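Technical appendix A lists one of the benchmark inputs used to test multi-chain prediction within the project. The record comprises three sequence entries:
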Amino acid sequence: MGFLVPILIGVLFAAGVYCLMRRSIMKLVIGVMLISQGANLLVFASGGLLAGSPPLVPADGQEPVAPFGDPLPQAMVLTAIVISFGLTAFVLTLVHEAHEAVGDDDTDAFRSTDT
Amino acid sequence: MKDSFILSRAGRLLFPLLLLLSLLVLYRGHNLPGGGFIGGLLAAASFLLVGLGDGMAEARRRVRIPPAVLMGVGLGVAVISGLFGMLGGAPFLTGLWLPSFSLPLLGTIHLGTPLLFDVGVYLTVIGFVLHTVFSLADFGWAEQDEEEPG
Amino acid sequence: MSGLLLLLPLLLPLAGTIVLLAGSLSVGFQRVGAVVCSGLTLVASLVLLVAVDRAGILVVQLGSWEAPFGISLVADRLSAVMVAFSALLGAAVAVFSLGEISRRRIQRFFYPLYLLLLFGVNGAFLTGDLFNLYVWFEVMLIASFVLTALGGARAELEGGLKYVILNLFSSALFLSAAGILYGVLGTLNLADLAVRLEASPDPGWLQAASLLILVAFGLKAAVFPLFFWLPASYHTPPSTVSAIFAGLLTKVGVYALIRVYTLVFEPLFPQAQGLLLAIAVLTMITGVLGAAAHFEMRRILSFHIVSQIGYMVLGLAFFTPLALAAAIFYIIHNMVAKTNLLLISGIVIRLQGTADLARVGGLYRSAPWLAVLFFLPAFSLAGIPPLSGFWAKLGVVRAGLEGGWWFAVAAALVVGILTLYSMTKIWAEAFWKPRPEGALPLMAGGVGRLGWMVVPVATLSVCTVALGVFGEFLFAFSERAADQLLSPQEYISTVLAGRGKE
């Protein structure tokens, strides 16, 4: 199963970049979301993948039982997920407002502030 | 959105249960899976369930406090929980615990600053989720909800 | 006690955010709260600066979790001086905002977001951990995203969207790089990374991670070829917002580049040097040419932000003690001068209704005081002695000559002349020429509260002069900061002090 995770990360990044290249602003958002999920998964996988060995101290012991997953990437990825959750909520409202203001969802219509 | 009798009734019945469950999840996060973030999401979801059934105006009424204030209070509680450690000369956010005691039904209780921090997270998450969803609803994505009598 | 010293520049803006978020939305309360809070932050960060310069590096391990497992906050001279000057700008711009920010924006939580931005920026300067740097970046970005789009006008939303999407992309790259580094080295604490990278270099992965980080920070610092979001979005929000962004956000990117390349990726630097040099030169040139092609004050100034970033990266790319000192001095000078110029463009907009150079004029006659206030930072930016920009450029150029980088030095000098051209253009068009036919009516926005806008501009102009006149003092400080960067043993041993005790 372990070999599927890197492939999945690659697929998420590729799909995200593909969406970013599209002309619809909604697809931009989807692309950014996919890429940040890919990055989250990468951080999660960086601690090594160990199925079924959580880093929990058993009730009658002082230390977790020997092969246990690295808790640090898990803590970090939780933080990153929460951050991307908040950002996604913000970007969705931003895209909605921008769509209302511009009246189009084609990125070509979003050039009035360009240089 | 059409009125859904089932959703509306179910929302009213489930609302207090979900809130209670969210508090339980908040508390038990210290020794078992759970915690402030998940508890906060559950609590916010319970308000949103009411919102979906009876309209966002009703959900707003039930929250009573503006979500932005909830966020502020939550952050404040979290910061204050960190300051307790500093009173004893330890760095910011150092955990301190009261001596544990037993209560019927709930078993042994450990109270400490990490729990207080989690309460802060809990409030912040509720505030954040509700603030976001209420603003989205204001844009007109849930058009008719606002006009319905609460 | 030292812990509190280090925490106050973070806790004060956070407390301010909380109070303004949870407290009354009345305009007076929000305004007073923001000014008081940013003023206190300024005092706290000046105290921190003095303490760090005298007593050496300060460290706090949050929650008593020892490094490298916990969250370390570290203040060395570079961090402390960045915090101090960002707090200075924070306070000055907060006062300026009293004259510009409308009631509607205040009621949409302008001030809590403003303080949250300061909180995030200070956090990014003070953190000692790569993952937390990511978190602080996000805090800062969330606040800045909302500040750009708060008005809801079409231009703001369009500019904001570009800004948001590109910065989110760079954050994802940064996070990926952090993931790779953790996978290879098993830590993200900057000091611990430095130790482990020296011990076990696995060149392929580390090179990949360092380049990902270069792209991510480069995008935030707006270097060539990743700067397009900046001129497209900085001229859309109110001048208060553009000014604080110009002063702080890109500089955080440059700071992060300096930090990781001096502390962590120092062994990998030789391979990156050519790339950094090329980036720096191209950034300077494209930025200044973009500015020459524009005719609106804020757009011109936005391109100059990009161009000036080039000088700072150039200082990093030379990588000698003198060059790094010059880069630090350059950042400080540029934060003050650039913020001030954007604030002045806000006053021009208030007085004449627009900052489009074709439609303004006659300011030298109608507002001679503004002409003086503009003259100082503008010619400092162009590098005219004895203003601060001259010493900054002199330092970079001398470092380049010592290293024999003739081409880069030539580019820096030419860009300096072109900068002077841009500033002269603004001077001639906005101040010197008579008011054109068809200009907007004077002071259409009313002059109420203009005094609040003038005081911080005057203060920052005086600062620019002071930084020039007392340049030697500040340069000596920058050299001490650069020495600290180039001999990271002190940083590493202070952060990891707890590990020996186990």
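Chain B touches chain C at residues 68-69, 71-73, 75-76, 79, 82, 85-86, 90-95 (CB under 8 Å). The longest strand of chain B covers residues 101-103. Comparable benchmark entries are summarised in Table A2.
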